[in-house]
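Retro notes
What went well: the complex prediction finally ran end to end.
Inputs used:
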Amino acid sequence: MAAQNLQSVPAELSPEDEAAGQANFDRVMAEDSRIEPKDWMPAAYRKTLLRQISQHAHSEIIGMQPEANWISRAPSLKRKAILMAKVQDEAGHGLYLYSAAETLGQTRDKMMEDLIAGKARYSSIFNYPALTWADMGAIGWLVDGAAICNQVPLCRASYGPYGRAMVRICKEESFHQRQGFEILLELSNGTPEQKQMAQDAVNRWYAPALMMFGPPDDDSPNSKQSMAWNIKRFSNDELRSRFVGMMVEQVRVLGLTLPDDQVRFNEDTRKWEHGPLDWHEFQEVLAGRGPCNAQRLERRREAHDDGAWVREAAAAYAAKQQAKQSMTTKEYAA
Amino acid sequence: MSPHGNPEVPASSASEVIRGAEQVPSGAPTPEAAATETKAAATTPASENQVPSIQPAVNHADRGAWGLWEVFVRSSRGLSHVHAGSLHAPDAAMALRNARDLYTRRNEGVSIWVVPADAIAASDPDAKGSFFESPQGKDYRHATYYTKSEGVKHL
Ligand SMILES: [Fe+2]
Ligand SMILES: [Fe+2]
């Protein structure tokens, strides 16, 4: 029996093995069980997962920027510490997800390269600017809130490493949303100017947050296949509608309003409805023409270049230690 | 300058990583210098009478100099270390520190193991049928197989 590595590397198989692999995959799907890295999987399944997980990882990494920008100007030491912890969590989320993507046979370096080269996509939401301190509240409440809504069902994704990464991430996200909610609540109960600042931030982040769930169902061609593969559990519109329902409740506690006079509960469909969203803007931002796309990528590139000496020094140190150790081993052997 | 007038904050985590070097436990497992070895092998001219060397299943040179490590965390005293995930690091000491920062930010562990990913041998899922012995007809390995003692106390 050959010892197997932990990574999944697509191999050339005989037609019989290919058929057996497909049969096993189909059985796993039918039983709603999990696929693990060394299992046979259809090439399209691997490709879809790799795209989705790496885009998700990139989103966590780029998503650090709008908030990191505010760490130095957080209004108190406590808020500064909280914001730093949140941004650090997002870095962790990116790393969990890169690890999950790596089990599919792609290296992290290659994924990073693609991001920096502008070849990879990430969530459109992070291409909007964070204009005031209240944006830290709106981002935590609406953006992390929408992310949680999206991610909780992904904990049951059919690909084991992805599901496990999502479990870890979801555990950490609830603090993100709550700290954002608290920022808004505090501002809302502050001076009229502070309350206005909170309302303004909610007004700007509401629609982009709703668009985080992706295009409407009849305009989302890949959703069906992802649902058949048990990667996606609910449609974009379904999740969006649930999210709107939660926000309607919570915005009342904040003493603020949603910038949408068409929000209503449809008694017939038993679903929450919202006003029209600007899907043209969504496509534009996704295509790289949003307010901050260039700036975000430039910053990521800078950080990567600025960190090069650290990566090199650490590798050189490790090599030196290794060389020293093998010298000692040889001396003992002699 | 960004459109919202925010000065960009240098976000290098390098100092975080280097701080606390004195806390590295002694007796950390020695990493296989897979990356450097593979690189060296690639640059060594192939010779016909060379002894074939064992190649790692995944070419670490592809990943740059920082190899892949698997992380195992003991969540509290008395429990086993459980696989938490993986990470990249140039050596065992950095792997341990990175694992601490990545997998135990909220007191999730009291002890960490890091293992070079290619030092792990795993069973082949395709061989499932033959590798894992069939439980068929082996009921006698379970206590429930023995029914005659039913009703007898403390048995
Ligand atoms: Fe996150
Ligand atoms: Fe978050």
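What we learned: DSSP finds four helices and three strands in chain B.
What to try next: split runs per interface for comparison.
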